[in-house]
# Entry
Amino acid sequence: MIIRPHYMKALRIYRNVPLVKILSGIRRCGKSTILDMLKDDLLADGIKSDHIISMRFTSEDFDDGITHKDIYRDIKKRMLDDACYYLLLDEVQEVEHWEKAINSLLENSNADIYVTGSNSKLLSGEISTYLTGRYVSIPVYTLSFSEYLDFKNPDPRSEKELLNEYLKFGGFPIVAIGDFDERSAYQIVEGIYNSVITNDITRRHNITNFDLFNRVVKYLVENVGKTFSANSIIKFLKNEGRSLTVETIYNYLTWLEKSFVIYPCQRYDLQGKSVLKTQEKFYLADASLKYCIMGFNPKSISSMLENVVYFELCRRGYQVYIGKNMKKEIDFVAVKRDERIYVQVCRRLPDESDREIGNLLEINDHYPKYVVTLDDLASGNIGGVKIMHLADFLLSDEY
# Structure
C-alpha cells in the first residue's frame, strides 16, 4: 500500500477532534485505501485493534435492508468500554438516513468518526440538520503528479517522461499502480465512469433518455475549460435534431457535480474584487475521463493542461477562480487565506508569450505570478513573472 501523505497529514490534524471527518470524491479515487492507511496509522500509534471499527457498505448490505438504526446498534454492541473508539465507515451514504446514526454515535459515545462517500447523498441537505458545525469535509482527488511518481517508483524514466504518461493516463490509483497499455487503461477508466453515471446519476435521478444525457456529457467533456453556456448546449443539440430545456441542462450539471465528475470554477473580477455569477468553467475530475470517452489525441493535451493545474491548486487548499482583469483573462486566481497566486497555462511559450506574460504584468500587486508551460526551454523570470515547466510547478514547494 502506497501512502498518500497529504491525506494522512489532514487526518492526523483532525484526529480526536469531536468532528465527523467526511472524505468525499469520485469513485475509485482512493478513499477506501485512505481509510486502510488510517487504520494502519492508528495501530502504529498504539490503538488497540478492537477499538478500531471498520465497516464497508456494499450492495449486499442494501439487499438485506440495513438501516441507520442497524448501524447504530451494531456499532454500540462493539463498544465495550469508555475508551475512545475509531469508526471507519466506507460508503456509508448509501444507507438511508445514515447521518442520524452518525449524529447519535457522536452524542452518545466516545467515538472518533471517519466516513467516505462518492455521491451527493453524502453531502445532502440533511447534514445541515443533523451535523451542523460538527463535521469537516476533506475532498479526495485522483493522484497528484507527486503521488503518481510515488506509485511508479522505482522507474528508470525521467520525471518529464512520466509526466507525459500522467497527462495521458490520468491519476486514478488503479491505473497508476499497474503497467497498462492505452486501451486497457481507458477501459478501466470507462468502467469507473459508467459506474458513476449508472449508479450515482441515471438510476438515482430516474433519467429515462439516457442517450440525450450522454450527449450533454460528451459536449461538456469536449469543452472542458471553456466558458459554459446552457444556450450553447441547446444549440449543439438542436443541430443534431434534439431538444432540451435549460432547467434540465442545469439539473444534469448539478448531478454530475455532486457525483464529483465535474468541478465548477467561477470567475473573479480583479477590479471589483467580487465573484461573478456568470461565465464559469468546468473541469473534469481526471483527464482520463475525457480520453476514455473521446479517445486520446496528442493535440488534445493542450486543452487538459488547465485541468491538471486546476486540481493541483485545489489539492493544495486554494480556492480557485478564473481571473477577469478588465477585458483580459487570467487562467487562475488561487486564494488561500491572505495568500494569492496568479497562474497562466500554455503548451508552448514562444507562440503565446505576449498574451500569457502580458496579462500577468498588467496586474498591479505583489502576489506571485506564474506562467506554466510544457516548453522544455522556457524558464526564468520576466518582470516578476516566473516561467516554470509543468513538471516543476506540480512538484514545487514554493506556493
Q: What stands out?
A: Residues 182-202 form the longest helix (21 residues).
